[in-house]
Amino acid sequence: MAARCVWSTVSGVWCLASSLSRGVFQKINKVPLICAGSVQCRGIRQVVEKTDGKTTTIEGISVGASQWPQPPNPEGRCPICRWNLKHKYSYEDVLLLGQFIRSDGGMLPRRVTGLCTEEHNKIAICVKMAHRAGLLPDHRPVLPEGHVPKPKPQLNRYLTRWSVRSVKPILRKGLKWCKVRMPVGDPCLKNNVHYSLKPVYMKH
Amino acid sequence: MSSFSRSAQQWATFARSWYLIDARMQPPGKISTMCSIRLQGKHKPIYHALSDCGDHVVIMNIRHIAFSGNKWEQKVYSSHTGYPGGFKQVTAVQLHQKDPRAIIKLAVYGMLPRNLLRRTMMQRLHLFPDDDLPEDILKNLTEELPQPRRIPRKLSEYTQEERDAFPRIWVPPEDFRMK
Question: Residue A160: closest CA among chain B residues belongs to which residue?
């Protein structure tokens, strides 16, 4: 990947030259280059030194991305539309969901991933369901040092809509016409593609 | 089989078989419907309600059953001892901790026909919380039934090649730092 952030500005070179001539180690002020669509803070770059006779060039090379494959629908507004995955994923597709989460299990912000609002919400809900089903064992939150978690009953579950601690038992189930249902899955996934004759059953 | 002799064919038709089901990560309701069908004998073309043609069913790994939704906290099992103030309501979590077999046992009991044969059919149901089965039951088993629910794979169970083969859906901006 070509070097993106060569300090070609005059002031930058002057700063470098002066610091090198003085021979004193100084913290070099980074001059922010404003490229199209970039944010104020810069990413981490690898510092590379090249010496050509009397000229020493110090470059910061960004760790570039390799060639990503082209999505089948490049006119899409968000990554999901571009890859034609709009109604086709669920809580089980951990390889897809794992691309939008941090190492401690939280979701990445929408402005970074580029997802549209509804897809971001759907993926957030699927990630929560995957966490509750135990499909993301390596993305656990970091506990403070010395904190021993209380022994909780290890129960298997899947398609849990609500958080485990927030749910109350249904003590009075009601008669047939006013039954209190136990919800399964989430209504945001009701438009998912399914090839069975029975509709998706969410009110158990 | 048509190649059997008449007596062997008759014996094979009317014999009582032993089925094995692994209930790991399976919903208890679906396991119970499969059980009740086989305990009544409704999976056989020679079924008749009075002819006692049900089979034995052995379920293992009941401790690792999986409820969908929030049923572990929401489902309530109620009973009354008969004495005043004896109405007890227990959630599925508490019942599972007290007795792991109770959830499946109650589910199958509710799915069998409400007649005097129900108790004999329940005697033919064998429940084991873990996968260590006694030897005499292991010797009797004839067939293992397929699990009703497909278990999804965890992210740690995917190999690195499968993870690399899956395309990156979005490209992070250059200035983005992953925590």
Answer: B69
- State pLDDT tens for residues A95-149: 999 999 999 999 999 999 999 999 999 999 999 999 999 999 999 998 888 888 8
Q: Scanning every residue of chain B, which has its alpha carbon at the shortest distance from the alpha carbon of A170?
A: B74
Longest CA pairwise span in chain B (Å): 80
Cβ density class B85-94: b for 16+ within 10 Å, e for less: eeeeebbbbe
User: DSSP letters along A97-154, please?
Assistant: HGGGB-TTSPBPPHHHH---HHHHHHHHHHHHHHHHHT--TT-PPPPPTTPPPP----
Structure tokens that stand for A62 in this block: 């960004």
Tell which A residues from 59 to 88 touch B, by Cβ distance under 8 Å.
Answer: 62, 64-65, 68-69, 79-80, 82-83, 85
Residues of chain A contacting B158 with CB distance shorter than 8 Å = 94-95
ipTM over 0.85: yes
A101 touching chain B per CB within 8 A: no
**Token digits of residue B131:** 């996968």
* Interface mutation target, options B161, B169, B178, chain A, most CBs of A under 10 Å: B169
Tell me how close the Cα of B88 comes to any Cα of chain A, in angstroms: 10
The whole-number pLDDT of residue A6 equals: 43
Tracing tokens 């109350």 back to the chain, one arrives at A168
| Cα separation, A100 vs A124, whole angstroms | 9
> Which member of B25, B69, B156 has the closest CB to residue A138?
B156
* Token pair of A125 as six digits: 């809900």
Cβ-contact B58, B141 below 8 angstroms: yes
Paired with B76 in beta bridges are B91
- The answer to whether the predicted template modeling score (pTM) of the entire model surpasses 0.90 is no
Give the residue from B68, B58, B87 showing the smallest Cα distance to B145: B58
Q: Which residues pair with B60 in a beta bridge?
A: B22
Q: Do B96 and A155 touch (CB under 8 A)?
A: yes
Q: What kind and span of H or E run contains B18? A: strand B18-22
| Cα separation, A95 vs B168, whole angstroms | 10
